[in-house]
Design a protein that fits this description.
The complex is a heterodimer of chains A (about 290) and B (about 130). Chain A has helices at about 5-65, 70, 95-110, 125-135, 150-165, 200-210, 215-290, and strands at about 80-85, 115-120, 135-140, 170-180, 185-195, 210-215. Chain A has about 290 residues and is an alpha/beta fold. In chain A, helix 3 runs parallel beside helix 4. In chain B, helix 1 runs antiparallel to helix 2.
């Protein structure tokens, strides 16, 4: 049975933990708002871009030719998985759920006899994957010094990926990130960036013929495809940023509530032990008086 | 025919402008062009340069680099990788653009040299304009 002093110490320590988790929750809430705004601001660009790309890609595919970034190398033997996770922990199952999806994919691809390469963005995913798949790593991009994710960060990642593609290091590239659905729900996503796939291709392809292209379609496509990789990575990074903060907020909210429950329990225990001590002393005094 | 059209300028990070415009001067890769309401639909890539928007409320200039413009009869959308209002252009920004263009010029293969060197000279003109 812990002494009164022990209990008091524990209550104090849980109280300060609660203060910290509460503060972290509020910080995460503020950051979440900012991250959501950033994701919101980036959406018009990404949407327009994809619409135009879909049109271009559609007509290029009709011709049955196009840059390698669009049509692929004709194989899918070597796959590059770009895994985007957070730089910091204490955000619940955020990183774990992305890593779980990646692990599943790695095993599946390996089962099909494909070669898998991993490029990580963010420290946490790297730590978790390094344990089992250290030999598959081809690189890591560190964003821990970056305060606010900018398009330049996405461009750097895209440049790295494209250089590897040009060097023939892989056939297919996929990015993994968490899609922000709400504060309590973030879904890990897989998105293929090379060869490029655009949603709504069929619908857009018909409208694309209305446009004149200057320079010609092929040149535009060659110019824009690398940018489209950067755009998709940027969108992924922003979604991830919002998801991370959302996950952290929920995790810290739970932690704060748990700490509160714990304090309540410990306080009751503390009061009971104190009462027991008092009762004990009373009994001693009374039996002492009776003995006289 | 309407005398204004919708004009949008967006960069990956934010939307810079969404206004009614009467004419938009766009620095296209193959030469400048001015889009006015009723223009035939065109998609063109951009070279680094000044984009100017004429609207009922006056003219607005932006410095843009990389990306493309989508022009149709009722609207013009410019999607630029980098875009900032001309008033906010700093020497650092131009230096950064030039460093990038130079790096690309160095890395380019011979048959692409004319494109990259053109981009370099475009930037030099741009820098002169700004002073």
């Amino acid at each position: 049975m812990p002494s009164l002093k022990d209990l008091k110490n524990r209550i104090d320590s849980v109280k300060s933990t609660r203060k910290i988790t509460k503060a972290m929750q509020m910080v995460a809430a503020a950051k979440l708002r900012r991250a959501q705004e950033a994701a919101e601001a980036a959406r018009p660009y990404a949407e327009r871009f994809n619409a135009v790309m879909a049109g271009l890609a559609g007509s290029a595919q009709e011709l049955g030719q196009g840059p390698k970034l669009l049509t692929g190398t004709g194989k899918d033997d070597v796959q590059l998985l770009v895994v985007m996770t957070s730089e910091k922990g204490l955000c619940g199952g955020f990183n774990t759920s992305i890593v779980r999806l990646v692990r599943y994919q790695i095993e599946k691809l390996r089962g099909e006899g494909k070669t898998v390469k991993i490029l990580t963005v963010g420290k946490k995913g790297r730590e978790q994957l390094k344990r089992d798949y250290a030999d598959l790593f081809v690189g890591h991009i560190d964003l821990s010094e970056v305060k606010r994710i900018g398009y330049a960060n996405a461009q750097d990642i895209a440049k790295d990926v494209l250089a590897r593609f040009d060097a023939g290091e892989f056939d297919v590239a996929k990015i993994y990130y968490s899609k922000f659905e709400s504060v309590i729900s973030q879904k890990p996503q897989e998105l293929q960036v090379i060869p490029a796939k655009f949603e709504g291709e069929a619908a857009e392809a018909t409208t694309s013929n209305l446009y004149d292209y200057e320079p010609d379609e092929e040149a535009i496509l060659a110019d824009l495809l690398p940018k489209s990789v950067a755009t998709q990575i940027f969108a992924g990074l922003l979604e991830n940023g919002a998801s991370e903060q959302g996950a952290r907020m929920t995790a810290m909210d739970n932690a704060t509530r748990n700490a509160g429950d714990m304090i309540d329990r410990l306080t009751i225990e503390y009061n009971r032990s104190r009462q027991a001590v008092i009762t004990n002393e009373l009994i001693e005094i009374i039996s002492g008086a009776e003995a006289l | 025919m309407a005398d204004t059209m919708q004009f949008d300028l967006v960069s990956p990070e934010r939307k810079l402008a969404s206004v009614k415009a009467t004419a938009v001067k766009i620095p296209g890769t193959e030469g400048d062009l001015t889009a006015m309401p009723g223009h035939a639909p065109v998609i063109t890539t951009l070279r680094p340069g000044v984009l100017s928007v004429e609207g009922p409320e006056g003219t607005q200039d932006y410095v843009v680099s990389g990306g493309f413009a989508e022009i149709s009869a009722e609207s013009t959308s410019v999607l630029a990788e980098r875009a900032i209002p001309r008033g906010e252009v700093s020497k650092e920004f131009l230096d950064e653009l030039r460093a990038e263009a130079e790096a690309r010029h160095e890395a380019a293969e011979d048959h692409e040299k004319d494109i990259t060197s053109k981009a370099l000279s475009d930037l030099a003109h741009l820098a002169e304009d700004m002073v």
